[in-house]
Amino acid sequence: MPGVTHDDAPLLADLMPWSVAPPRLGRAWPTGPDAASLRARWDAFVKTEGAEREALFGPTRARTLHSSPARLPGRSGGTGKLAHASGPCPEPVRVAHVPFDEQWLIPDHRLIDAARPELWRVADGRQVFAVEQPAAAGTPGPALLVTPVLPVGPPRPVPGPRRASAVRPGRVRPLYRRPGGSEPNLAPGLRTHLGTLLGHRPAAGDVLAWIVAAATAGPAGCAVPLTADPDVWSSGVELGRRMLWLMRRDGERPKLPGGRRPYVRAPLPARPLAVRYDPDEETLHLDDGRVSPVPSAAWDFEAGGVRVLERWLAARTVTPQPGTLEAVRPAAWPQEWTSQLLELVTVLALLAELRPRQAGLTVGTPVTASALREAGVLPVPDSARRPASVLDHREEGPGGQFALL
After folding, report:
1. Who's near 99: CB < 8 A, 6+ residues apart?
2. Which of 123, 150, 168, 245 is the most buried (most CB within 10 A)?
3. What is the tens place of the pLDDT at every residue in 127-168?
4. Strand, coil or helix: 111
5. DSSP string, 21-35
6. What are the CA-CA distances from residue 302 to residues 106, 158, 246 (Å)?
7. DSSP letters of 356-389?
8. Domain boundaries, the chain
9. pTM for this structure?
């Protein structure tokens, strides 16, 4: 964990005041590691009727075949009852399923128990979502994760890895309160106050970079020590930018230093069942398939109390229950998954290499929560904790009616 701790450090909940619980799916089959399988699941679902369709759907208290919620903002899913649904599958979208695992989701409100429409309204190419990782005893890993796609909670504990259900994802904090990267979700007056202390008003992205580098998990929530030292701020922001780049995985593909790029040394089987890691040989075995080098720091990297690689592989290798829609999956291991696996190994290894720099980051002259209260930055107004009004078009409500918002 970073060394920039302080008894009176401000909390993330005050620095990024608007937060939303992650969407709760309620059922597993509308999500998966590949979009083609989701389309096939939808086709199989709409071909059934009556009790068979209900069994495949998986009704809950929040959603049944007769629910007719409003359409998800900006999406094309239907608003009629699923009991009578037909036609093509709504185009799947990328979501952050669990830490470091982007999967696909059928964006239909009728399939999702609690979709959090306020998050969908601000999800665009400029948005960045910060997800606090709740503190729990013996659960190492980053205090805060960042993703460019909408984070969703798993519908149930992910099978396979140890402690898979030890820690649930924390609240989602978008960097921006409105689409198009406007109105940062930061305490009003925070950047201006920091600008007075640092000699320049930091950009919203740089504040997030500092938060990612300096955040520490604690019993009261995620604490973010702030500094009034320009040199310390610059060093922390540089570190945070690197971490953000690795977490978002946008732009140029990251590479391990010294040419230690992971490769497939033996072909991966069509449907691997057994996953094993050899720390001495730095080799990941998927049945007879082999990937190396896989640094032990990458294999041991945890988020939310679970090994990231172990959980990522479990989502693609655990055999689903026959006869369920989850059982509709690729007939063979897609090449795309191999590319994603190699990149994930690299990202985790590089993030692990940054931990000493995090631990060595010192706060210098602190900006405490008490000082922010004296400056009038804290407490934040109640309006900062509520979503902004972002509607510039009508949204379709239940049964095709337009919602009045």
Report:
1. 131, 133, 145, 169, 303, 304, 308
2. 150
3. 999 999 866 544 567 899 999 999 997 765 544 444 444 456
4. helix
5. PPPB-S-STTEES-H
6. 28, 15, 15
7. HHHHT---SSEE-HHHHHHTT--SPPGGGGS---
8. 12-400
9. 0.91
